[in-house]
Amino acid sequence: MNLKNTIDFRPKLITSLRNYNKSKFTSDLLAGIIVGIVALPLAIAFGIASGVSPEKGLITAIVGGLIVSLLGGCNVQIGGPTGAFIVIVYGIIAKFGFEGLALATFMAGVMLLLMGVFKLGSVIKFIPYPIVVGFTGGIALTIFTTQIKDLFGMQIAEVPADFLSKWAVYFQHINTINPYALIIGVVSIAIIALMPKVSSRVPSSLVAIVLMTVVSFVLRKYAGVTSIETIGDRFTISATLPRPEGLSFSMETINMLLPSAFTIAILGAIESLLSATVADGVTGDRHNSNTELIAQGAANIVVPLFGGIPVTGAIARTMTNINNGGRTPVAGIIHAVVLLLILLFLSPLTKHIPMACLAGVLVMVSYNMSEWRTIRSMMRNPKSDVAVLITTLVLTVIFDLTIAIEVGLVMAILLFMKRVMASTQITVIRDQMDVHHDGESHDEQIAIPESTEVYEIEGPFFFGIANKFDEAMRRVGGNKSLIRIVRMRKVTFIDSTGIHNLEIFIRQSHKENRVVILSGVNKDVHNALEKAGVCRLVGEENVCNHIDKALARASEVLEQK
């Protein structure tokens, strides 16, 4: 077997280096440095919000970002921790500890790798849009909720994990609000919101963190204000890249973590391919979705060995890369190197960053993720889409993302089936019928021989319309027709249930001494019927590709009878 032909793995780095030159390197270098600086506060904030230490967020951006750029199928994709995973990671750590998170991330990496190997990249894109908008909005609301304590500087010993209990505790401790922390948080939000209007090239979140860290340091050292909690008050930061460590596996833990790992894998695939698709629209390039999934899988397999959290493609950092001239994976590699240098030489300075400022950064992240304008516009869409969106959003907030995606997908599938069933018609025709050519109706009509009925199926013949077919048979079961023509010109596909129903119909007709003729059977449906033995059961001479031939065959059978 030639693996080169079976596995769709073509890293963009290899092709981009073929015509690489000094001009491209200069652009990639500038973009990589800027993206690295932009990623710094986000990696720290996402790490802390996920329930781990800040350097674990940095390690994720360094190791994961490097692997995604080395192996990825998109020229400009920037990998690292993202806000979408905060809720999942926090929940897994609360239930299974960090060891459980590492194992779930590793398992998700294997799943992503297999998705890419088996060329499922295009399939992931078929996740219904209302589900994507619903869980993204739900995640945004959940992230916002998790930051209220730090944003207001509340004195709460332990914040509950679920959404409703969080808000109940917040209202109970509203009298513990720290005005200094609140001011720092609100000013941080204002800087991040207004800075792009002044200059879009300067990372607004980094400006907010630098300014608020200086303000906090001055207040603490010279004004005696020690109530503003900083990263250093809560975490001990290690300025080293940890050595990789092995993971302990057991079937019990694998079974417990499988749903969480599946959620990480699906969300990682969706977010990464969505980011790559958005990037293609800007650069005019075309990413390889299967290669990208393999790279994301490799990143999520390696990162937990270094103590990191889940990795995915980050839309905001990818767009920052593009806007600053990055056009090859070299920019992503440089971004990882910049973060590594910051971790090794500047990480002690991060202990002075106020928690309220990081909360402000994440509040803006949640606002940008919320897509409230999209949600508002989608409320005018069909009620079924609105139902899927709202259900996914509510379940994400109240329960967790795993349940939300599962229920949302089931709802979307059931509603889609309902639409298909509604569009599929089964009509019984006697005496005469209109002639249709390529879907157009003409005044011309054709006579149907006596003792002959035509059963026209318009739409796919699958398990969803089995009841319709049975009901149509029962309605005409007592008639005296000798010939039954099943017209299938609009049957685009048939599944095993449809084949089974057709077999029952044919056998029952034969018992009643009736002849069944199949008309307008296309090539794919004919192949399915032939493999199932239906053509042999009905007789090859009674399988016709056109209604004229079917009616002629009916006349011939009637003459013989």
**Unreliable segments (pLDDT under 50, ≥5 consecutive)?**
437-443
Question: What percentage of the residues does DSSP assign to strands (E)?
Answer: 5-15%
* Structural class assignment: alpha/beta
Quick check: average pLDDT? Answer: 88
Main beta sheet strand tally, sense and closure = 5 strands, mixed
Question: What fraction, in percent, of the residue positions are helical?
Answer: 55-70%
Distance between the termini: 57 Å
- Cross-sheet strand order for the largest sheet: 3-6-7-8-9
Gyration radius, to the nearest Å? Answer: 31 Å
Number of helices: 25
What does the overall shape look like?
elongated
User: How many domains is the backbone divided into?
Assistant: 2
Q: Write down how many β-strands occur, each being a DSSP E stretch of 2 or more residues.
A: 9
In summary, what is this structure?
The chain is α/β, with parallel strands linked by helices and 561 residues long. The protein has helices at residues 3-6, 12-16, 22-49, 54-71, 86-117, 121-124, 129-146, 148-152, 163-172, 179-198, 204-222, 231-234, 251-283, 289-302, 315-323, 329-345, 355-370, 372-378, 383-398, 401-423, 466-475, 496-511, 523-531, 534-538, 547-560; strands at residues 79-80, 312-313, 425-429, 432-437, 440-447, 452-458, 483-490, 515-519, 543-544.
